[in-house]
């Protein structure tokens, strides 16, 4: 937790200094790569929330609690899977980037799965 917290704090300071604006075009340092992984995850998470809201609106009211429970369980599974995926780099400078990249990949897969629910309901 301390490693992640300090990395996030450092990245927040780095971004607030204006250094992050062009960094994701061609990240060269570990800090840039970690920052860019965070940016990718932020975009995926926003899209996930938008698609989830559309699915929630499309499913019958009687199914909404199942959808909510499934989504919460999926989030927990994603986070645990991604924490495990970083076992080989635990404590290293790429740990947080590895976890974030994993979360982005799983989130994008979930987006596609949720979209398939929308396609089936049409």
Keywords:
Substrate Binding Domain Of Dnak, Chain:A, Domain 2; 4 helices; elongated
In words, what does this structure look like?
- With 122 residues, the chain is mostly helical.
- It has one domain (2-15, 29-121): Substrate Binding Domain Of Dnak, Chain:A, Domain 2 (Up-down Bundle), CATH 1.20.1270.180.
- The chain has 4 helices and no strands.
- Helix 2 (30-58) packs parallel to helix 4 (95-121) and helix 3 (64-85) runs antiparallel to helix 4 (95-121).
- The termini are far apart.
- 16% of the residues are buried.
- The model is unreliable at 1-10 and 13-17 (pLDDT under 50).
Describe how the helices and strands are arranged:
Elements: H1 2-16, H2 30-58, H3 64-85, H4 95-121
Helix pairs in contact: 2-4, 3-4
Shape: elongated
CATH architecture term: Up-down Bundle
Quick one: CATH class? Mainly Alpha
Run of helices and strands: HHHH
How confident is the prediction overall: mean pLDDT? 87
N-to-C span: 43 Å
Provide the number of structural domains: 1
Please report the total strand number as a whole number: 0
For the report, how would you describe the main beta sheet?
A: none
Strand-pairing-aware structural class = mainly alpha
Quaternary organisation? single chain
Helix content: over 70%
What proportion of the residues form beta strands (DSSP E)? under 5%
Low-confidence stretches: 1-10, 13-17
By CATH, the topology is Substrate Binding Domain Of Dnak, Chain:A, Domain 2
Rg value: 17 Å
Tally of contiguous helical segments? 4
């Amino acid at each position: 937790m301390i490693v992640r917290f300090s990395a996030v704090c450092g990245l927040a300071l780095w971004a607030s200094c204006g250094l992050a604006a062009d960094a994701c075009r061609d990240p060269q340092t570990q800090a840039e790569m970690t920052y860019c992984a965070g940016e990718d995850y932020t975009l995926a998470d926003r899209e996930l929330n938008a698609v989830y809201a559309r699915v929630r609106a499309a499913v019958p009211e009687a199914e909404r609690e199942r959808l909510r429970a499934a989504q919460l369980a999926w989030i927990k599974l994603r986070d645990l899977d991604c924490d495990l995926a970083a076992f080989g780099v635990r404590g290293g400078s790429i740990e947080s980037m590895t976890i974030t990249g994993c979360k982005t990949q799983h989130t994008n897969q979930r987006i596609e799965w949720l979209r398939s629910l929308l396609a089936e309901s049409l």
